[in-house]
Design a protein that fits this description.
By secondary structure, the protein is α/β, with parallel strands linked by helices. It has 15 helices and 10 strands.
Amino acid sequence: MSSIRVTVLGGGSFGTVLANLFAENGHSVNLWMRDAARAADIEVQRENRTYLPGVKLHPGLTACADLGACLPGSDLVMVSVPSKAFRNVLRASVSHLPPQVPMVSSAKGIESARFLLMSQVMAEEVPGSPIGVLSGPNLATEIAMRHPAASVIASPDESVQLLVQESLASERFRIYSAEDMYGVELAGALKNIYAIITGMSDALGLGANTRGMLITRSLAEMSRLATTLGANPLTFLGLAGVGDLVVTCTSPLSRNYRIGSLLAQGRSVEEAEHEVGQVAEGVNTLRLVKAKADALGVYMPLVSGLHLVLEDPSCIDVVTRGLMMGTSKRDVEFAVPGLRD
């Protein structure tokens, strides 16, 4: 396709990787971040030394800290900021956005006040723009190292799907499309909880059988809640579901996996988050999902168990025993129509 103007809001690891991918595809890219000094450093050094040290950035990428300079004229805006800052960044951006510019979120979190996903926040704050979400097994460091990867662009608007596929896809980054935006986004948020659990399990030396059990039961819990909330359970069999879940639950590059590993080594939540040094959405998402599951009466024993452990780490053995001795449920809950636990 012909060159377009892309603005990526958020200069963390994944925002930087996305901006660089667009630039490598020949597009004009602005990478916005709050920190003007860091933006200036990127312009001089041609690398994001805070989040992606050693990764040289394409000359077509411009780092900036002024929304008024970054956003006007954009043909596509990617929003890659943490969920807790998401709405405020959008509100600061609205007056600078071109009319009806496509907006795509890559954030994997939930806004606490009303249990809103980032697409729902975008719909409220930028009601005139077509929206989408980008999600999948996308560890930023591996993409920056040019390892093959794939992602999903989900949107009810086919033009958004095509725009992202044509502008972002390359020989090393494949983009699939989907319509179930809510399901894709919910999968991306929920899997962070289970990465903490498997990180703890691996650090405790519980083995591959345990890890396999945890990942598959995590998938059951995710799809159970998502279906209750109106998503398609089949979405969770794709890249944004099981693909992202497996990667996040097994790789030390995953921030939430590392949080779990540190917790199992005796660190507090605060110490673990400080040591990881980047926003890991899983802890906040856990608390929100626990409250939502309780309110809806959705059976989520792994969520409940992790919540107990974070409140009192000394109870991990009791929680583990309780999980193993609990009532057995169906293995595949949606395999037979009408049969649900």
